[in-house]
Amino acid sequence: MYMPGRKLEELSFYRKLSIYGQKLGVDVFIFTPDDVDDNRSRIYALSYNQAKRSWTRKWVGFPPIVYDRCRYHGADNFRKITRFRQKYTKLRYLSRPLANKWTIHRLLSENESIAPHLPSTVHYRNRKQLEQFLKKHPIVYMKPKSGTGGRGIVRLQRLRGGRGYLMQGRDAERRILPAVKVTAAHIPVRLAGWGLQSKYIVQQGIPLELKDGRVHDFRMLVQKDGQGKWQVTGCAGRIGPPFSVTSNLHGGGTAISMETLLKNRFGTEEKVTSIKEAAYTLGLHVAQHLEAKFGTFCEAGIDLAVDPSGHVWLLEVNPKPSRDVFRLTGDLQTYRNAIRRPIEFALHLLQKKAAPNTDTHLLDRVPPSQQSESHRDRSV
């Protein structure tokens, strides 16, 4: 989607994606729904010229595979991408939207290997229900069902002696909201005053604070590889800025290697190894379970927390994850893998189509008249 000024939010990522595509023999074009000529079924797409280190525009037909990186940022963009998907139903998508946080939680709860890692979660209905939940859990998080990037997340902490709650969070623009003491009756009023009227889920708070008071969590990237198998590409820690209830990098968080963060907290190599193994196993189970529910997709960003005992908790699943956390920790090999794997998986799907007696519908979904010879088999 275009941002104000027709800027693309992830243009640097698309440049790297294009370069890796060229190395693997795959043409990569960048486009938004605004670039589509519906009357002639063609796209005025961006193409990166590595030799000239510049972007150029060219008319292309629809590719056999579309890698959806649309982040909606508003109702207009959501309607725009919805119209596009409804009009071009025969396109094959490398990635796909999943569902809101509440639906994802309910689906993951069905899996007995995943359920023990899910914080207690309810769909927010009213103040009375919230008060009952707060009696069970001294800290809770309220999250918009469809929010991303830490927008609109509220943290409630029960104060000693039943003297109300400490309420803090981020507004819809990710700005840090100052901590205030409130009664249960004032919580809905505060939410409205902060412009946070979205439908919420209420989730058991996992202790995330480090010794300096800042919160932290872990971002895991799980991706399909060039053989179509799920792999944990990597996992890294994120530490939020002071006074923030979230650790998202776009909200001012900093990145740190998983090993360093776990070693600082738990000390021994044995404990760190045990936690990593549990986290990696959980990440693969989550991706496999969601794929069984929603169909094939190429990657997921999985947010994890580790409590003081070392138990791993699943906080959130993002079907359109960033991979900057690995670049920021200096883990450049993992960062390169994270960029390359969607291209490798796309190539795997194309090769499956080309092989005899396998999936023959991949390119046939796009009429031959819409494909040039150079793009007929290897464009994304």
From TrEMBL:
Region annotation (Disordered) ranges: 358-380
Record-linked Pfam families: ATPgrasp_YheCD
UniProt xrefs under InterPro entries: YheC/D
Domain of life, per lineage: Bacteria
Cited SUPFAM superfamilies: Glutathione synthetase ATP-binding domain-like
Protein name from the UniProt record: Endospore coat-associated protein
